[in-house]
Amino acid sequence: MLSADIVVVGSGMGGSTFAYGLAQRGFDVLVLERGERLPREPENFSAEAVFVQRRYKPDDTWYAVDGTPYAPGVHYVVGGNTKVYGSSLPRLRERDFEETRYPSGVSPAWPFTYADLEPYYVLAERLYRVHGTPAGSGPDQPFEPWRSSPYPFPALPHEPYIAETLRRLSEQGLHPTTTAMGVDLGPGGACVRCGTCDGFPCRWGAKSDAEVCALEPALATGSVRLVTGAYVDRLETDADGRISRAVGRHTDASTGAIEPLEVSGRVFTLAAGAANSAAVLLRSDVANSSGLVGARYMVHNNTHIAAIDPRRVNDVVFQKTACVNDFYDDLGDGYPGGTLQLIGKVQAAMMKTHATRAPMSLLRPMADRSVEWLVMSEDTPDPANRLSVDDRGRITVSWQRTNYDRHELLLAKAKNVLRKAGYVGIFEQRFDISMNSHMCGTIVAGDDPAASVVDRECRSHDVDNLYVVDAGFFPSSGAQNPALTIAANALRVAEAVPA
Ligand SMILES: Cc1cc2nc3c(=O)[nH]c(=O)nc-3n(C[C@H](O)[C@H](O)[C@H](O)COP(=O)(O)OP(=O)(O)OC[C@H]3O[C@@H](n4cnc5c(N)ncnc54)[C@H](O)[C@@H]3O)c2cc1C
User: Which residue's alpha carbon is nearest to atom 36 within ligand 1?
Assistant: First the structure.
């Protein structure tokens, strides 16, 4: 039986950042992580190993509501999904915290505002070494939210191919701007500005992931402990209905021996990711008087596009330096659109994982002449989109696209501006049920206990020693990458936990 004052389940963006915040207050913290440390090895940078052989993906299966099995976009390692994430760390916008009415859906208000979270965005940007250009520092930043403090590091410069593409977009009246990126780049930094950042683990520890930036410093304080191979199946309650134990199984990584896991504590925090935290609560049958645990599952409406200009070879190394937010608040019809972001340079082997029948002899020249973007817009929280667990504890996801008319319009707009910029061939890959990397919203925060699972401090309405600090608390998804908001919120909640 292990014990700690505060037990944290999961060491991803939410869990590790929360542990870091608690460590600053001197709490006795135990982080339970089902995975192990992701090894630093040559395969970290191999597209074949990472994308074709799926070397770092867990052997986990979820099910669509019709019973179709699929491999979810999750990584069960210390640091969670941040070990492979793209490290794009933008803030949500002020409007994202307010109610937004779309033609076919409502994005609800959060129980706290952008102004409430803003000081914690500042702290999270420092912790995660975010590079960006301060708002107001030039005419190219009109679509940034206000900030009380500049970015801690200067923006990553664009390579010549990208600079030329952005010039072509600017000629159309757009305002391409720098992507807020978390990397250890600069004098003495570990980043070598390679082409394998987005989607790959970093062999040099130069990517600002949760293990490197938050968990390691938290462990170094001595007040935080980590147990790997610790799978939490459920939480148990005492006679007063408070959580008394986390139970599951511990797997010894070196011997494979499996033993029961039992952990007691004063406060329990779920940070197992939006799906797995909801699954723990459902298996435990706690904190669900609203009936909303697992409901309002969101993932963003995302499409990858590869835009090809056959006359230009794209020789970029680090591609993920720019985004376009001109359509974020208004797509030209009075309703929000979303964001366009450059992603890491896609290699032919990565294209092959989707274009399975295309020969490499075709994919190589395509990859050499393409630039890749993520088109991201907001999905809305539909109670019918929900995650459930069956009697064997397996995760089933009921999911239909929501607010997708906005995505179609944004996608059409993105293709239009890229065609005008010289990209005659545009290929798209719409994210399907398995591409859930931005999942959120299964344990939503709100002031009304009948309409939310946790309160504005991410504490369960039903159980006063239970918190949730992963992406599950998001009442709406916004249309920016979620990780910085998860981190900022975890720091905010860490200040609110009573001693
Ligand atoms: C390829 C990829 C690229 C991405 N790029 C970006 C990006 O550029 N910017 C951005 O903002 N976001 C990005 N994301 C999304 C981002 O990584 C996630 O939003 C973020 O990591 C979610 O944080 P979390 O704390 O909710 O969960 P996670 O970070 O996934 O952490 C959950 C942790 O809980 C552990 N766990 C799960 N179940 C249990 C259990 N039962 N018991 C014990 N431990 C458990 C898991 O092993 C994991 O370590 C990307 C994701 C992927 C996959």
Answer: 272
